[in-house]
Write a structure and sequence with these properties.
Length: about 400
Amino acid sequence: MRVLIAGGGPAGLTLAACLRDRGIEATVMEKNEKGRTGGYSIGLHVNGWSVAERLGLIETFRAKAMPLGPAHQLDRTGRKLFSYDYRTLAKAADGQMLAILRSDFQHILTQEIERDVDIRYRTTLESVTDDRNGVDVTFSDGRSDRFDLVIGADGYRSHLRAMTFGPFERFLRPLGYRASAWRVQIEKPLEASFVGMMDVDHQGGLYNVGDGTAATLFCWRDKDTGRLGPKERLNVLMERFGDWPDPIHSALRLPIDWDQAFFDTISQIEVPHWSKGRVALLGDAAWCLTFLAGQGTSTAMAGAYILASELARKPFGEAFSAYENRLRPLVTRMQAVSRQIGGHYVPQSKRGMRIQSWVLPVLLSRPLIRLTSARLGAPALDLDTWSG
């Protein structure tokens, strides 16, 4: 069996590794150059952790993990609202939690598969034709090929999904926010793992990478879903956050490499069925939990593992159905969590900020953290019990 994977992000690379381990030939197609991975951070939680263990990569990920420690939330004047500790969250997860730069995550997975898997960079799809016996594809470099299956792991704005399932807008569920993230050199060391600042309709912060840099994350309420150019992006950020004090001020004062940075609307993707003929979707292309759920990468990795496992045991149609039946309940749950968290993450009023300042430290304290995690976190999947 030959499988083309459109997208060389966490979902696509994990799927390639899982297919390789089951003796299935995979080809990965990625539109960006090798190394264009962004500098922002991603979280690895129970289901992603379990997949990383099965791939023999968990210790490599841990060696590159960002430091876990206190987190401080301030108002836009710099006054502390509340604090919590990521080590308490990790302990509640029985240690199965880490944060890692996307660039490091991508590098580790790429190194794992590049000797065994054909990875075609700076390549996109020009055409996809499913004739029920296989899929003929034409690439942007003029080459053509034929595969047994094509998997779309090319993100929230999936080109393959638009080509085979329908236009982007058909599956879009905007949550009413925009977000931006990039890596920045910091002049003064952060005194915590995370320093965030919030105001009504706004949230911004820096995550300590541990090497003199920080990973930023800005989020604000905005119903517009149109795409913006680099100059417009900077204007929006400066308009929203430009007069905030350090560390926000310092992060915005330095140049931003928009080839590496993230800037987009925060929206979920809702596709009625994740497969159509010999084409299936995975990760953000299929569901997009958004960063608000904190489970996007781990759920994509779990989906990749389950999809590969089912394809190794069943005809592709049955495998696609089993993959969706096993994973959709978790996706539905975490999308609901993401919608719920958004209103708390980006406060809607001064009163809401005050309530968060009182309630969140309690919910994230040692006596209640397991209860909070059980309510808002992803339950562990049984990855090795196959459907049917």
